[in-house]
Write a structure and sequence with these properties.
- This protein is α+β, with helices and mostly antiparallel strands.
- The strands form two sheets. It has a five-stranded antiparallel sheet.
- Strand 9 and strand 10 form a beta hairpin.
- Helix 1 runs parallel beside helix 6 and helix 2 packs across helix 3.
- The chain is elongated.
- The relative contact order is 0.14.
């Protein structure tokens, strides 16, 4: 069982394995006059216009009716400089704006409400796996807080929450169109137990045990002490993933109030 898949590796497991966004990324970097972190490029080459992530917190292209792409905070300030809340910037030449606020590359926002922006500090763009910062609309544009120590953790969390389908069923619908099965694991266990196969014989022994959660983890082969937990869609839950390479089974786990639930994703046939 693999417990340490990156966001990009999960996409490859699910058939998003072509670098479809490579040229678009080059265009964005040329337009902005900058480079992007390696972790971001490796992921976005696969995730560009990814249907599975259309309702995620990461801008992956055609998420809504227009293309969402990264831009710098300072460019946004230039467009809105006449608004009273930005007058302090208008009173200084741009080369001194750093006295008021650092520049950030915005890469995403919360999909449902759009009240939180996710960004990378401009001077961190040369790092392979830089931190990610957030700004809430209730705070001043100059108030940014480090949310993730590593960009890779942010990307992983975005992918896991999309696959967990707690807010939107976008990922499930996109994967089913690609020929994948998306099952609640409890339902899958009961279905297999009725089929009379070698796997169902093993499950019958497991299902005779008392505790359902222990049965489920034993049947899936998941060691809960080894999973890498990320924040879920809500403060009360955590998410994780595991991959059985032999069976080609991807498990998406949700932990809430110490109760574990699993989704099983695999290719049909």
């Amino acid at each position: 069982m693999q417990y340490n898949l990156s966001a990009a590796e999960i996409l490859k497991v699910l058939g998003y394995d072509k670098p479809v966004g490579k040229e678009t990324l080059k265009g964005w970097m040329q337009e902005l006059g900058t480079t992007f972190p390696k972790v971001y490029c490796d992921f976005m080459e696969l995730a560009m216009d990814c249907e599975m992530l259309e309702t995620s917190d990461l801008w992956v292209g055609k998420m809504i009716n227009f293309v969402m792409k990264p831009w710098f905070l300072y460019e946004e300030l230039k467009e809105q400089i006449e608004e009273s809340i930005y007058l302090s910037f208008a009173q200084l030449p741009e080369e001194r704006w750093g006295e008021l606020c650092s520049d950030y590359l915005k890469i995403g926002s919360d999909y449902g409400a759009g009240i939180v922006d996710f960004a990378i500090l401009r001077e961190d763009l040369e790092l392979e796996d830089p931190p990610v910062y957030i700004n809430h609309e209730a705070n001043a544009i100059t108030e940014w807080e480090k949310m993730y120590e590593k960009l890779s953790d942010y990307l992983l969390e975005v992918v896991l929450n999309a696959l967990n389908c707690k807010d939107y069923e976008t990922a499930m619908e996109a994967l089913e169109e690609k020929g994948y099965c998306y099952h609640d694991y409890e339902d899958y266990m009961l279905k297999v137990a009725e089929e009379g196969t070698e796997e169902s014989d093993d499950l019958e022994d497991i299902l005779e045990e008392d505790e359902w959660q222990a049965q489920m983890l034993k049947a899936s082969g998941i060691d809960l002490s080894k999973v890498y937990k990320r924040n879920g869609n809500y403060e009360t839950n955590k998410v994780f993933c595991c991959y059985n390479e032999e069976k080609k089974h991807l498990y998406i786990g949700n932990i809430e109030d110490e109760e574990v639930s699993l989704v099983l994703i695999y290719k049909k046939g």
